[in-house]
Amino acid sequence: MAECDEDDADAAITVQHVTNTPLIYEPPASSFYANTWENMVDPEVVQQAFASSWNADMNFAKGLIFANKDAVKHELTIYAAKHNKNFITNWSTKSRLSVKCMDESCQWYVWAVLKLELGLWMVTSNRGPHSCISLGMALDGRMMGCNFLAVEFVPLLQKNHTARIFHLRDFITAKYYDHKLSYYKIWDAKQKAIAKIFGDWEESYQRLRKLLVAYLDQEIGTRYWYHTIRSEVSGDTILRYVFWAFAPCNEGFKHCKPVISIDGTYLYGKYRGVLLITMATDANNKVLPLAFAVVDKESGLSWS
Ligand SMILES: [Zn+2]
Fold first, then answer.
1. Entry's InterPro entries (predicted)?
2. Full-model pTM
Protein backbone atom coordinates (compact mmCIF):
# COMPACT_ATOMS: atom_id res chain seq x y z
CA MET A 1 0.00 0.00 0.00
CA ALA A 2 1.23 3.43 -0.78
CA GLU A 3 2.52 5.70 1.91
CA CYS A 4 1.98 9.33 2.49
CA ASP A 5 2.69 11.87 5.14
CA GLU A 6 -0.82 13.14 5.57
CA ASP A 7 -3.75 10.79 5.95
CA ASP A 8 -6.59 13.06 7.01
CA ALA A 9 -7.32 14.62 3.62
CA ASP A 10 -7.05 11.26 1.88
CA ALA A 11 -9.79 9.72 3.98
CA ALA A 12 -12.51 10.85 1.58
CA ILE A 13 -10.77 9.29 -1.43
CA THR A 14 -11.46 5.59 -1.80
CA VAL A 15 -9.84 3.04 -4.07
CA GLN A 16 -11.67 0.18 -5.73
CA HIS A 17 -9.27 -2.71 -5.36
CA VAL A 18 -10.02 -5.53 -7.75
CA THR A 19 -9.10 -8.73 -5.92
CA ASN A 20 -10.56 -11.50 -8.03
CA THR A 21 -8.52 -11.05 -11.18
CA PRO A 22 -5.21 -12.71 -11.98
CA LEU A 23 -2.09 -10.55 -12.02
CA ILE A 24 -1.94 -9.83 -15.72
CA TYR A 25 -1.97 -6.42 -17.31
CA GLU A 26 -5.35 -5.84 -18.90
CA PRO A 27 -6.08 -2.80 -21.06
CA PRO A 28 -6.99 0.17 -18.86
CA ALA A 29 -10.60 0.85 -17.92
CA SER A 30 -12.69 2.64 -20.56
CA SER A 31 -12.79 5.72 -18.33
CA PHE A 32 -9.10 6.07 -19.10
CA TYR A 33 -9.69 6.89 -22.75
CA ALA A 34 -13.47 7.53 -23.09
CA ASN A 35 -13.41 11.25 -22.29
CA THR A 36 -11.41 12.61 -25.18
CA TRP A 37 -11.64 16.10 -26.64
CA GLU A 38 -13.64 14.63 -29.53
CA ASN A 39 -16.44 12.98 -27.58
CA MET A 40 -16.51 15.03 -24.41
CA VAL A 41 -19.91 16.65 -23.84
CA ASP A 42 -19.31 20.14 -22.56
CA PRO A 43 -22.62 21.85 -21.72
CA GLU A 44 -20.92 25.23 -21.69
CA VAL A 45 -20.13 24.88 -25.40
CA VAL A 46 -23.73 23.90 -26.14
CA GLN A 47 -25.03 26.94 -24.30
CA GLN A 48 -22.72 29.23 -26.26
CA ALA A 49 -23.56 27.79 -29.68
CA PHE A 50 -25.43 31.01 -30.52
CA ALA A 51 -23.34 33.31 -32.71
CA SER A 52 -23.80 37.05 -32.33
CA SER A 53 -25.66 38.98 -35.02
CA TRP A 54 -22.67 41.34 -35.36
CA ASN A 55 -19.81 40.82 -37.76
CA ALA A 56 -16.58 42.72 -38.27
CA ASP A 57 -17.94 44.62 -41.31
CA MET A 58 -20.71 46.21 -39.24
CA ASN A 59 -20.95 49.13 -36.86
CA PHE A 60 -22.62 48.58 -33.50
CA ALA A 61 -26.33 49.28 -33.72
CA LYS A 62 -29.46 48.99 -31.60
CA GLY A 63 -30.99 45.48 -31.73
CA LEU A 64 -27.77 43.47 -32.20
CA ILE A 65 -27.77 40.39 -29.98
CA PHE A 66 -24.97 38.39 -28.36
CA ALA A 67 -24.68 35.11 -26.46
CA ASN A 68 -23.46 36.72 -23.22
CA LYS A 69 -21.63 39.72 -21.80
CA ASP A 70 -18.21 38.29 -22.60
CA ALA A 71 -19.27 37.98 -26.23
CA VAL A 72 -20.34 41.67 -26.27
CA LYS A 73 -16.96 42.73 -24.86
CA HIS A 74 -15.09 40.44 -27.24
CA GLU A 75 -16.86 41.87 -30.30
CA LEU A 76 -16.42 45.43 -29.03
CA THR A 77 -12.69 44.76 -28.81
CA ILE A 78 -12.58 43.43 -32.37
CA TYR A 79 -14.46 46.53 -33.53
CA ALA A 80 -12.01 48.76 -31.65
CA ALA A 81 -9.03 46.88 -33.13
CA LYS A 82 -10.38 47.22 -36.67
CA HIS A 83 -10.92 50.98 -36.33
CA ASN A 84 -7.88 51.48 -34.09
CA LYS A 85 -9.95 53.09 -31.37
CA ASN A 86 -10.12 52.30 -27.70
CA PHE A 87 -12.97 52.24 -25.21
CA ILE A 88 -13.49 52.22 -21.47
CA THR A 89 -16.22 50.63 -19.38
CA ASN A 90 -18.75 52.92 -17.69
CA TRP A 91 -20.88 50.21 -16.12
CA SER A 92 -20.52 46.47 -15.96
CA THR A 93 -23.02 44.44 -13.93
CA LYS A 94 -24.66 41.03 -14.33
CA SER A 95 -27.32 42.57 -16.54
CA ARG A 96 -25.88 45.78 -17.99
CA LEU A 97 -22.80 46.87 -19.87
CA SER A 98 -22.03 50.43 -20.87
CA VAL A 99 -18.88 51.44 -22.72
CA LYS A 100 -17.73 54.72 -24.22
CA CYS A 101 -14.84 55.98 -26.28
CA MET A 102 -11.58 56.53 -24.43
CA ASP A 103 -11.49 60.05 -25.87
CA GLU A 104 -13.66 62.27 -23.64
CA SER A 105 -14.56 64.52 -26.56
CA CYS A 106 -15.88 61.62 -28.68
CA GLN A 107 -19.60 60.87 -28.81
CA TRP A 108 -19.36 57.09 -29.36
CA TYR A 109 -20.93 54.83 -26.79
CA VAL A 110 -22.69 51.44 -26.62
CA TRP A 111 -25.15 50.20 -24.04
CA ALA A 112 -26.12 46.51 -23.88
CA VAL A 113 -28.45 44.70 -21.46
CA LEU A 114 -29.36 41.12 -20.63
CA LYS A 115 -32.78 40.23 -22.06
CA LEU A 116 -34.06 37.65 -19.61
CA GLU A 117 -36.86 36.51 -21.90
CA LEU A 118 -34.28 35.63 -24.59
CA GLY A 119 -31.39 34.63 -22.37
CA LEU A 120 -29.26 36.83 -24.62
CA TRP A 121 -27.62 40.24 -24.51
CA MET A 122 -28.90 43.03 -26.74
CA VAL A 123 -27.59 46.46 -27.70
CA THR A 124 -30.36 48.80 -26.57
CA SER A 125 -28.67 52.13 -27.11
CA ASN A 126 -25.68 53.41 -29.00
CA ARG A 127 -24.27 56.54 -30.58
CA GLY A 128 -21.70 56.58 -33.33
CA PRO A 129 -19.60 56.62 -35.32
CA HIS A 130 -16.51 57.82 -33.52
CA SER A 131 -15.94 61.54 -33.78
CA CYS A 132 -12.43 61.27 -32.31
CA ILE A 133 -9.17 61.14 -34.20
CA SER A 134 -7.96 57.62 -34.76
CA LEU A 135 -5.04 56.31 -32.74
CA GLY A 136 -3.12 56.87 -35.96
CA MET A 137 -0.32 54.59 -37.02
CA ALA A 138 0.22 53.10 -33.58
CA LEU A 139 -1.08 49.60 -34.26
CA ASP A 140 0.06 48.39 -30.88
CA GLY A 141 -3.08 46.41 -29.96
CA ARG A 142 -3.63 48.41 -26.78
CA MET A 143 -7.37 47.61 -26.89
CA MET A 144 -6.70 43.85 -26.82
CA GLY A 145 -6.31 42.79 -23.20
CA CYS A 146 -4.90 39.48 -21.97
CA ASN A 147 -8.35 37.97 -21.40
CA PHE A 148 -9.38 38.76 -24.98
CA LEU A 149 -6.16 37.23 -26.29
CA ALA A 150 -6.49 34.16 -24.06
CA VAL A 151 -9.89 33.39 -25.60
CA GLU A 152 -8.30 33.70 -29.05
CA PHE A 153 -5.42 31.39 -28.11
CA VAL A 154 -7.44 28.56 -26.53
CA PRO A 155 -8.32 26.78 -29.83
CA LEU A 156 -4.73 27.12 -31.04
CA LEU A 157 -3.24 25.79 -27.83
CA GLN A 158 -5.71 22.91 -27.68
CA LYS A 159 -4.19 21.73 -30.95
CA ASN A 160 -0.60 22.55 -29.98
CA HIS A 161 0.03 23.61 -26.42
CA THR A 162 3.72 24.20 -27.17
CA ALA A 163 2.99 26.95 -29.73
CA ARG A 164 5.75 29.55 -29.54
CA ILE A 165 5.10 33.15 -28.52
CA PHE A 166 6.12 34.56 -31.92
CA HIS A 167 3.65 32.20 -33.64
CA LEU A 168 0.86 33.45 -31.40
CA ARG A 169 1.92 37.04 -32.04
CA ASP A 170 1.92 36.48 -35.81
CA PHE A 171 -1.54 34.91 -35.55
CA ILE A 172 -2.95 38.04 -33.87
CA THR A 173 -1.19 40.36 -36.31
CA ALA A 174 -2.64 38.50 -39.29
CA LYS A 175 -6.14 38.21 -37.84
CA TYR A 176 -6.48 41.64 -36.27
CA TYR A 177 -5.55 44.32 -38.71
CA ASP A 178 -1.74 44.30 -38.40
CA HIS A 179 -1.66 45.08 -34.70
CA LYS A 180 1.73 44.15 -33.29
CA LEU A 181 1.59 43.25 -29.62
CA SER A 182 4.36 43.09 -27.06
CA TYR A 183 6.07 39.80 -26.28
CA TYR A 184 5.13 40.02 -22.61
CA LYS A 185 1.45 40.61 -23.34
CA ILE A 186 1.31 37.56 -25.59
CA TRP A 187 3.24 35.51 -23.01
CA ASP A 188 0.85 36.54 -20.23
CA ALA A 189 -2.19 35.75 -22.39
CA LYS A 190 -0.73 32.33 -23.23
CA GLN A 191 -0.46 31.52 -19.51
CA LYS A 192 -4.12 32.48 -19.06
CA ALA A 193 -5.16 30.36 -22.06
CA ILE A 194 -3.20 27.36 -20.76
CA ALA A 195 -4.94 27.79 -17.40
CA LYS A 196 -8.33 27.83 -19.15
CA ILE A 197 -7.51 24.52 -20.84
CA PHE A 198 -5.64 22.59 -18.19
CA GLY A 199 -6.37 24.52 -14.97
CA ASP A 200 -3.81 26.72 -13.30
CA TRP A 201 -0.71 25.69 -11.35
CA GLU A 202 -2.40 25.71 -7.95
CA GLU A 203 -5.30 23.63 -9.27
CA SER A 204 -2.86 21.08 -10.72
CA TYR A 205 -1.14 20.63 -7.37
CA GLN A 206 -4.52 20.16 -5.69
CA ARG A 207 -5.31 17.36 -8.15
CA LEU A 208 -2.08 15.50 -7.44
CA ARG A 209 -3.45 13.23 -4.73
CA LYS A 210 -6.43 12.30 -6.86
CA LEU A 211 -4.12 11.50 -9.78
CA LEU A 212 -1.92 9.26 -7.64
CA VAL A 213 -4.92 7.38 -6.27
CA ALA A 214 -6.21 6.98 -9.84
CA TYR A 215 -2.86 5.39 -10.79
CA LEU A 216 -3.28 2.98 -7.91
CA ASP A 217 -6.89 2.31 -8.86
CA GLN A 218 -5.81 1.27 -12.36
CA GLU A 219 -3.01 -1.03 -11.20
CA ILE A 220 -2.87 -2.18 -7.64
CA GLY A 221 0.86 -2.85 -7.89
CA THR A 222 1.59 0.83 -8.55
CA ARG A 223 3.51 2.58 -5.79
CA TYR A 224 3.57 6.25 -4.84
CA TRP A 225 4.83 8.41 -2.03
CA TYR A 226 4.89 12.12 -1.41
CA HIS A 227 6.22 14.47 1.18
CA THR A 228 4.71 17.83 2.05
CA ILE A 229 5.69 20.61 4.41
CA ARG A 230 3.63 23.40 5.88
CA SER A 231 4.49 27.01 5.10
CA GLU A 232 5.21 28.91 8.30
CA VAL A 233 4.21 32.16 6.60
CA SER A 234 0.89 31.32 4.95
CA GLY A 235 0.02 27.98 6.54
CA ASP A 236 -0.37 26.43 3.08
CA THR A 237 0.71 22.85 2.44
CA ILE A 238 3.66 22.77 0.06
CA LEU A 239 4.69 19.76 -2.00
CA ARG A 240 8.35 18.91 -1.44
CA TYR A 241 8.79 15.54 -3.15
CA VAL A 242 6.57 13.10 -5.04
CA PHE A 243 7.53 9.64 -6.29
CA TRP A 244 5.60 7.07 -8.31
CA ALA A 245 6.34 3.78 -10.05
CA PHE A 246 3.86 2.07 -12.36
CA ALA A 247 3.12 -1.60 -11.70
CA PRO A 248 3.95 -2.83 -15.25
CA CYS A 249 7.37 -1.16 -14.98
CA ASN A 250 8.05 -2.90 -11.66
CA GLU A 251 6.99 -6.19 -13.19
CA GLY A 252 9.09 -5.65 -16.31
CA PHE A 253 12.26 -5.03 -14.30
CA LYS A 254 12.50 -8.81 -13.69
CA HIS A 255 13.37 -9.19 -17.35
CA CYS A 256 15.95 -6.40 -17.48
CA LYS A 257 19.66 -6.31 -16.86
CA PRO A 258 20.27 -5.72 -13.15
CA VAL A 259 21.60 -2.21 -13.70
CA ILE A 260 19.63 0.94 -12.96
CA SER A 261 20.35 4.25 -14.67
CA ILE A 262 19.25 7.56 -13.23
CA ASP A 263 18.75 10.93 -14.83
CA GLY A 264 17.01 14.22 -14.19
CA THR A 265 15.60 17.08 -16.22
CA TYR A 266 14.71 20.58 -15.11
CA LEU A 267 11.07 21.68 -15.13
CA TYR A 268 10.52 25.20 -16.42
CA GLY A 269 7.05 25.85 -15.01
CA LYS A 270 6.09 28.46 -12.46
CA TYR A 271 7.49 26.50 -9.51
CA ARG A 272 10.48 24.89 -11.23
CA GLY A 273 11.81 21.64 -9.75
CA VAL A 274 13.50 18.60 -11.26
CA LEU A 275 11.92 15.46 -12.75
CA LEU A 276 14.01 12.40 -11.85
CA ILE A 277 13.72 9.13 -13.76
CA THR A 278 15.22 5.72 -13.08
CA MET A 279 15.56 3.33 -15.99
CA ALA A 280 16.74 -0.17 -16.81
CA THR A 281 17.48 -1.85 -20.15
CA ASP A 282 16.31 -5.21 -21.43
CA ALA A 283 18.29 -7.82 -23.41
CA ASN A 284 17.77 -5.78 -26.59
CA ASN A 285 19.05 -2.63 -24.88
CA LYS A 286 15.55 -1.10 -24.97
CA VAL A 287 14.92 1.35 -22.15
CA LEU A 288 12.30 0.57 -19.53
CA PRO A 289 11.40 3.46 -17.19
CA LEU A 290 11.09 2.22 -13.62
CA ALA A 291 10.15 5.13 -11.41
CA PHE A 292 9.60 8.88 -11.53
CA ALA A 293 10.01 11.60 -8.95
CA VAL A 294 9.62 15.37 -8.82
CA VAL A 295 11.90 17.12 -6.34
CA ASP A 296 13.01 20.67 -5.68
CA LYS A 297 16.59 20.01 -6.83
CA GLU A 298 18.98 17.16 -7.46
CA SER A 299 20.72 16.44 -4.18
CA GLY A 300 21.65 13.53 -1.98
CA LEU A 301 18.60 14.24 0.18
CA SER A 302 16.12 14.26 -2.72
CA TRP A 303 17.64 11.14 -4.31
CA SER A 304 17.32 9.25 -1.05
ZN1 LIG B 1 -14.01 57.79 -30.35
1. MULE_transposase_dom
2. 0.61
